[in-house]
């Protein structure tokens, strides 16, 4: 797609020509830019078509480099300093920053989205090519249009229009195009570990233009390991009176821990809750079990892979501590487990490489200045307040919130269509999203820091992004 160089809009001088107001885009200018977005929607769909054509499916992953280089080139053309760096070979992140004219005093914004898409598998159920965008009856079809190349394309389109129209931004604007979200890989986590600070963040993942927080997910491995290995023929001596051999089947001992987990899950269901979640959403799923060597042995090892869901006001470190405390008490009640307690390995940076993942939770601060501004930008365009609630799924937003940045999930596309055969998104919703974000970026990045709620340390700029 082409970039158009249009003459910059002229800036109104209210209040006797003060420099401050010269730089502040007026509502009229924002409305004009939103109208331009609608008039030039073909460019948004051309951009989306390019993104959909990169088959960035995960798994198998390691296939996003070309797509990320394309995203990087678009950001560079919008005046961003960009950086493309490998998380895994073939799967780089793109991080970028457009420095504000007065970033010490004006609010900064982080925009985040993932470039990977859910696997397609057998595409015979698709009535269209999943990697060729088709537009029909007001809907865009293609893998990732809902989750979340539609969101990425709309953000990039908004940035292009803001740039070409010369809308000044006084605060910094940061962008992360990350890999690995679909396979629980640490794309966004790696960005935050490199150092990233902002006064507010929007993750453009699938939310049907609702503003959302989320519960968290962590996986873990619980392993019982016997120091000795016994032949199957020894079983009688291990379990019967007078046998005299002290040993155990790791599989049978794991049964005790599984029932311990069920008790804890029931206790959580009764004692914990969070608005926006059905009671008992905080489950502990014994998802995979691996144990034993061979029918001729007593099982000397058993490992259980669990998936734990927790609420937005809980952190994964506290949740896993609770599970460990509980299971160690269960183990304490068993003479053999007391001597051979279970080992725990929590989370991981990739379901593909480590069979482990973490999605931290995200509680919403409804009073956060950024959230209130986003509500206004949405309402001004659409005429209605956006729904504010909780996502029934998880996104990378928790990693950004955990780094101390007030964060929301706000993106186009419907979860019913995400990951689905014939994935689709409403074309008008994609355009609306670009329009809302044009207003939000222009307004938030021109908001003085003292009127935003500034997280501690946010002003100590590290220069990294
Ligand atoms: Zn997603």
From TrEMBL:
Protein name (record): Probable succinyl-diaminopimelate desuccinylase
PROSITE patterns in alphabetical order: ARGE_DAPE_CPG2_1
Record field: catalytic activity: N-succinyl-(2S,6S)-2,6-diaminopimelate + H2O = (2S,6S)-2,6-diaminopimelate + succinate
Record carries keyword Metal-binding: yes
GO molecular function, one term: metal ion binding
Keywords for this protein: Cobalt, Hydrolase, Metal-binding, Zinc
Needed cofactors: Co(2+); Zn(2+)
Annotated organism of origin: Paenibacillus soyae
Superkingdom field: Bacteria
């Amino acid at each position: 797609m082409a970039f158009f160089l249009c003459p910059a809009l002229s800036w109104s001088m209210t209040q006797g020509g003060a420099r401050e107001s010269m730089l502040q885009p007026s509502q009229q200018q924002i409305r004009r830019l939103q109208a331009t977005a609608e008039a030039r929607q073909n460019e948004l769909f051309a951009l989306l078509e390019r993104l959909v054509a990169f088959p960035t499916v995960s798994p198998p992953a390691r296939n996003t480099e070309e797509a990320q280089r394309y995203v990087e080139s678009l950001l560079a053309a919008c005046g961003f300093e960009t950086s493309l760096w490998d998380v895994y070979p073939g799967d780089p992140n793109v991080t970028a920053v457009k420095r504000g004219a007065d970033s010490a005093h004006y609010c900064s914004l982080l925009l985040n989205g993932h470039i990977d898409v859910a696997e397609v598998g057998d595409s015979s159920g698709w009535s269209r090519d999943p990697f060729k965008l088709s537009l029909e009856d007001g809907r865009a079809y293609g893998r990732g249009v809902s989750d979340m190349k539609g969101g990425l394309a709309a953000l990039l389109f908004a940035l292009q229009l803001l740039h070409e129209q010369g809308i000044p931004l006084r605060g910094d604007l940061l962008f992360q195009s990350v890999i690995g979200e679909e396979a629980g890989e640490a794309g966004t986590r790696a960005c935050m570990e490199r150092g990233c600070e902002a006064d507010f963040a929007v993750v453009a993942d699938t939310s049907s233009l609702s503003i959302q927080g989320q519960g968290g997910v962590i996986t873990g491995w619980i392993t019982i390991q016997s120091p000795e290995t016994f032949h199957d023929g020894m079983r009688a001596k291990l379990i019967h009176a007078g046998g005299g051999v002290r040993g155990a089947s790791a599989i049978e001992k794991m049964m005790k821990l599984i029932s311990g987990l069920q008790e804890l899950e029931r206790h959580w269901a009764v004692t914990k809750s969070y608005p926006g979640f059905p009671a008992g959403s905080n489950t502990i799923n014994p998802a995979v079990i691996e144990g034993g060597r061979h029918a001729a042995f007593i099982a000397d090892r058993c490992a259980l892979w669990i998936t734990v869901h927790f609420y937005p006001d809980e952190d994964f470190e506290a949740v896993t501590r609770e599970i460990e405390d509980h299971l160690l008490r269960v183990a304490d009640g068993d003479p053999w487990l007391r001597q051979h307690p279970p080992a725990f390995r929590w989370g991981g940076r990739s379901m593909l490489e480590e069979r482990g993942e973490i999605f931290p939770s995200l509680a919403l601060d409804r009073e956060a200045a950024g959230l209130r501004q986003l509500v206004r930008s949405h309402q001004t365009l659409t005429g209605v307040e956006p729904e504010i609630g909780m996502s029934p799924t998880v996104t990378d937003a928790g990693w950004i919130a955990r780094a101390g940045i007030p964060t929301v999930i706000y993106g186009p596309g419907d979860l019913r269509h995400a990951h689905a055969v014939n994935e689709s998104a409403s074309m008008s919703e994609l355009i609306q999203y670009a329009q809302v974000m044009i207003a939000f970026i222009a307004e938030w990045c021109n908001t003085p820091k003292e009127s935003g709620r500034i997280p501690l340390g946010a002003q100590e700029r590290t220069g990294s992004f």
